[in-house]
Amino acid sequence: MSRALWRGMANTDLVEIGNKAIQHRLLKIAEEELRFPPREKSSDEGWIRGLEGRMAWRRATPDLENPGVCDESADYYLVYREPTDLEYRKSEGGHIAFYIMRVLHASDLESLGA
Asked: What is the Cβ-side half-sphere exposure of residue 3, based on CA atoms within 13 angstroms?
């Protein structure tokens, strides 16, 4: 069971990237590295300005196990939040930990005030 529930727009964002290595890295980060609340004092994650405590961002960092592979992934960010009680109850098995709202390029994330 996946820990992350992907909103329709996040799925669209992921597909539109068009690079399977980047897509794979983002999926792996969503499953293995996301935390809510995000780690404090990290340059790779934090709160969306104005939505502190409710919505966070996480930069896709290169895979340390495969250096040099998919370094372009660092240009993308996951925008996510905790699931609501209703979303949690409606999920199959109720094990979702994150609701991924968007996958954004760095230039688009800046407009959200991250």
From this structure: 15
State yes or no: pLDDT of 91 exceeds 70.
Answer: yes
**Biggest CA-to-CA distance, the chain:** 41
Give 9-63 pLDDT, tens digit per residue: 999 999 999 999 889 999 999 988 898 899 888 889 999 989 999 999 999 887 6
* Alpha-carbon span 38 to 52, nearest angstrom: 10
Whether a cis peptide bond, with omega within 30° of 0, leads into 37 is yes
Separation in Å, CA 102 to CA 58, 64, 66, 91: 11, 24, 25, 19
CB 79 within 8 A of CB 57: yes
